[in-house]
Amino acid sequence: MTAIGSDVWLGIDLGTQGVRVVVAASDGSLLGAGSCPLTSHREGDRHEQHPEQWWRAVRTAIGRAHAAGADLRRVQGVAVDATSGTITMLDRSGLCVTPALMYDDGRAAAETDQVNAAGERQWAKAGYQRMQRSWALPKLRWLLNHYPHAAEDGWRVAHQNDAINSKLVGHEVPTDTSNALKTGADAAQVTWPERVLDALEIPRAMLPDLVLPGTVIGQVCAAAAAETGLTEGTAVVAGTTDGCAAQLGSGATAVGSWNSVMGTTLVLKGVTKDLVRDPHGVVYSHRSPSGHWLPGGASSVGAGLVAREFADADLDMLTREAGALLPTDLLRYPLVSPGERFPFIAPDARAFGSREPATRAESFAALLQGAAYVERLCFDYVDLLGAPTDGAIVLTGGATRNPLWNQLRADVLQRPVSLPRNTQPALGMAVLAASSRAPLDSVAAAMVQLDRTLEPRRSAKNPHEEGYLRLLDLLVQRGWLPGVVATHARERTAP
């Protein structure tokens, strides 16, 4: 039971397939949750959403959280996360006037070359070296090419959560450096790179002001209060991207700690005191509300293949059979889609296996093992960059529903891994909202409740070392994994 005097916070996760809302107390008690689906359109490199559905979905999800028992009158603050790199444009009255170009929309290939030529020094300073065509700044240049009257008509850029925040407060709002990172924001200085923008002919007036995540940017206005049930005057707090939100919701906020999300794909995010600079452009860093840095990367390996390859299988039985086969000498690199982004960049990478599986259970075992090996290589990579990896490792994502996979990941890493009781970005936004009143680490420690910690099974020699080293060799042979990375990973396997 939550104490009557306990503060309450509301987090909104604005995703691709839906909006999720969590109402949580300062002690971590979940008081209510709600969701509402979203639709989008994919065609080739194109991926769009109609932004007008976002506010309707947010209102519906908040209403469902209230119906589930949350007393919205007690909410002290609201924060919204969004998919990284998703942008739209608003007119002078705040209405969305273009489709939203989603986080993985890839139409801005030519504009990406233009952006990287103009901002080469700035992107190197930021640590990620080059922008990718799915990032927001190339997409903004693409929008301006297709809507040449935008600047004259007073249009301005809005990240996905900016559109919701402006609805909540009733006027234009600053954006957070996390969502603005892929639009070119200098997170260290909390400024826009105006020389780069000038070179790209992007008016500075088209971009919102910048603040760090966790900054109070306004209060719920009367109109939004009437539509949502929130109290007028409730604080609206600058949010972050969905990946950073998931990290906050995992409780991995202290320097050296890491959140490894094995969902459809693998995302690894950590906390460092200083900015991590990556000469290979694989890892990029967001700013934490605490002022620390949140380096990370997203692989194209993950649990997405489970649904694709084993949709008709009895997964419980398959898991039992796979457990008896581990470790297996069948090595798989289980890419969900072509191309790899982390722990190396290889656009031509394709999923592969070292041989044909003898049984379906062996193929399943090799999938679990392969993803765990890639996760280990990701940790080896960030260690090579100088990031501390000695803190807690928290596992989240759909793969954590498989107990065999959880234990396998601990065994491969030879590190304890923890699993939170509630794992969702919306909870991370409730944590972020609460951090506007108290230090982030203390807020996360109070609000994120761990379910259990798994210890790795110890032996004189890690039974997975031989397979891991063989996988490194296969990746080097294909020309995907740089030799310096493979050498460092091999050195870290030495006793």
pLDDT < 50 stretches: 1-5
**Tally of contiguous helical segments:** 17
Estimated structural class: alpha+beta
Helix content: 25-40%
Largest sheet descriptor: 6 strands, mixed
Straight-line N-to-C gap: 48 Å
Give short descriptive properties of this protein.
495 residues, alpha+beta, six-stranded mixed sheet, five-stranded mixed sheet, 17 helices, 22 strands, globular, disordered N terminus
Question: What can you tell me about this protein's structure?
Answer:
With 495 residues, this protein is of the alpha+beta class. It is built from 17 helices and 22 strands. The strands form seven sheets. It has a six-stranded mixed beta sheet. A hairpin with a 4-residue loop joins strand 2 and strand 3. The longest helix has 25 residues. The chain is globular. The N and C termini lie far apart (48 Å). The N terminus is likely disordered.
